[in-house]
Amino acid sequence: MTEPLVQARQLTKHYVLRGGLFSRRQVIRALHWVDLTVYPGETFGVVGESGCGKTTLGRCLLRLVEPTFGEVLFRGEDLLRLDRETLRQRRRYFQMVFQNPYLSLDPRMNVLHLVGEPLVTHTDLRGQALADRVVMLLERVGLSADHLYRYPHEFSGGQLQRIAIARALALNPLFVVLDEPTSALDVSVQAQILNLLKELQAELGLTYLFISHDLSVVQHVSDRIAVMYLGRVVEVSTTERIFYDARHPYTQALVSSTPIPDPQARRARVILQGSVPSPLNPPPGCSFHPRCAQALPLCATEEPRWVDVGDGHLVACHRVSG
Amino acid sequence: MKEPLISVRDLRVHFRTYAGVVHALNGVSFDLYPGEILGLVGETGCGKSVTGLALLGLVPPPGEVVGGEIRYRGQNLLSLPPAQWQALRGGKIAMIFQDPAAALNPVFTVGEQMELVIRRHRRMGRDAARRQAAEVLRSVGMPEPERILETYPHELSGGMQQRVMIAMALSCGAEVLVADEPTTALDVTIQAQILDLLVDLKRTRGLSILLITHNLGVVAETCDRVAVLYAGFIVEMGPTGAIFQAVKHPYTQGLLAAIPRPSRRGNPLQAIPGTVPDGLQPPPGCLFHPRCPFAWDRCRQERPALLEVADGHQVACHLYGGEAAR
Questions:
Q1: Does the beta-carbon distance from B43 to A260 stay under 8 Å?
Q2: Interface ipTM
Q3: Are B217 and A190 a contacting pair at CB < 8 A?
Q4: Structural domains of chain B ordered from first start
Q5: B43 CB within 8 Å of a chain A CB
Q6: Cα distance between residue A78 and residue A58, in whole Å
Q7: Per-residue pLDDT tens over the stretch B229-270
């Protein structure tokens, strides 16, 4: 088995809402006890509905937010224990592309400045050598030297996302977290960006953590998928298994609620009742049990353990036994 | 053939801006029949929302309807006195929006807002209006409607808020519902609930729905017919099955090919080259020709008309119909 590139162990992020005059202190469990392993060269998809902790997971893995508890091993080294300077040096190996390029790119910086910034921070490249390197990166993402001195407002959403990708790739990272990279784009442009990401991965041997709420996109790009619900990972498996042999009732419902662009693809839909409970006071036991059609009495009291149903297909559900 | 409930002909909407006149709608024509869901699809800026707003006379300034007709039961809404149109708006023709949290007033309870709408359109006392509100809420699948009436919008989830919006739209006997991206802000499991509700309302009440969306999956699962909008012009329209199985227009083909699907895993997706044309200076001829892989001389000069190529299936493209086929 190959060595894992990134491993999260019991990764937990709780946000504390300070109590005010009329309210008591409350804790939001944004991420709770998450274990996962990402191998080199794969695309690891993370899906779930809004508020399930997908983005928090991505940010905790890169230590962009400080986890409350747990470990993040990057090539065996715990990122959460590194001092400031060592962490700064390690950051060149892991990068992030955000959902909304209109917000993630500084409107007052031109493309040379935006894409060159990580190079200035981490390398000795300056002047013409820096500009040459930036042009090379731009060409790699389908832009050109003509764009060097332009500002973000002069670009379309798709072009901006290309710039954000060039910026993330500037330091030849090993691991890139893509947080909903195409959610702000139209389908025809989304297709361009997804193709680009695939090409770059093949060319540069990148490892992706691909976060999205859109199952069809995750299915297209991912090798393995983790499904999240209320701050927890409920199922992890290969893309095929998640879509055709899901064991967790939530995964089954999520897959069957995704509209298929084919009017003849009629299928049995599992429509969930109710909506996602607040992470402020998640239900006891399995957090999915109030919406689960197959819930057992046990589900309301005890948190399910991880069960490996074969070949690394992990499920956290009382209904599933090994 | 049934009479259309809404009949739009050659609708043109311009926005006068400092940079010039933006051509948002360049002659849109379609019919909405009783008891059908017509999908209006297209990418950002194609004019989907403006079309929906125009049906209610709500095109925001500096936009204005500069030409065409919108007929409701034969009556041209554009020539109606404002008061008469206002009576229809929110009554027989209602609209729901993408973000229900923004459409509901945060400082009034659901009950107060619903009563207001009902009493605006019907002669009714407060108690009767409240009973009516509770009844409509129940009919859209809200548990405990009396309790919901007492809540403020922020106490409800996004899916519940959208149900309140739908209930409000139906509370005065709407025949036509314009739904502008009603599920885009919602999670997929909630989206499935709302789409099911819309289909159910079509079946049980014979409601006609203009469903505006960018999601072709949503269209495939809910719509009876589809109109594809590109740069303020309908390029293809027909029964949902025909659009997905016998797609004609190169733009629609491109849109369908760009969606990730299980069968295409591992292969590159097909992207449409270029970008949507500038509304300030639309290209001459067919609006899609600069991005079209099949464009020829005629496409650069002459704008194709929407012609019927099969039963109920219309396409605006020089590749089809008439002498162009040769």
A1: no
A2: 0.84
A3: no
A4: 6-80+225-320 (3.40.50.300)
A5: yes
A6: 16
A7: 999 999 999 999 999 999 999 999 999 999 988 877 878 888
